[in-house]
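Summary of Year 1 activities. Much of the first year was spent building the evaluation harness for sequence design. The harness presents a backbone, in tokenized form, and records the residue chosen at every position. We chose the following record to illustrate the format because it has been used consistently in internal testing since the harness was completed.
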């Protein structure tokens, strides 16, 4: 099972305050533990929303771009991990070890092919397999 662990932003991360050397070292040690255990597929921090943009679509599929920051939003994302574990509970146990002193993370399971049932036809499964193979080849995975 794959889970996305979403790290919520806070006032400092939205101001672009960078982590201290100690915080970077602690996070590096945690990430190394995840990697050595074979559960970390990806993990990154994100720049503040002031450097981002949103693309909103209307019912006619017209796109409107809105530049950050996104002050009207209460919960923004500051970073993420993608973990592959055997259960939600195992993911929670890993997340509880994260070196955070303050804040909140959200854990969400990533859909697997089987979650889509019969709507995910053999043709669509083949297409998805091709897309994943192309992406892996392009990025050396």
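For this record, the design step produced the sequence shown next.
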């Amino acid at each position: 099972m794959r889970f996305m662990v979403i790290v919520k932003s806070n006032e400092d991360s939205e101001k672009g305050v960078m982590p201290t050397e100690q915080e970077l070292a602690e996070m590096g040690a945690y990430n190394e533990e995840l990697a050595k255990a074979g559960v970390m597929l990806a993990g990154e921090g994100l720049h503040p929303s002031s450097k981002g943009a949103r693309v909103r679509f209307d019912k006619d599929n017209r796109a409107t771009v809105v530049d950050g920051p996104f002050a009207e939003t209460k919960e923004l994302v500051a970073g993420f991990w993608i973990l592959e574990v055997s259960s939600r509970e195992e993911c929670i146990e890993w997340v509880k070890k994260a070196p955070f002193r303050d804040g909140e993370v959200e854990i969400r399971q990533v859909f697997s092919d089987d979650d889509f049932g019969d709507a995910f036809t053999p043709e669509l499964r083949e297409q998805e397999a091709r897309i994943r193979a192309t992406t892996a080849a392009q990025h050396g995975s």
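The CA atoms of residues 1 and 69 lie 33 Å apart. Quantitative recovery figures across the full test set are reported in Table 2.
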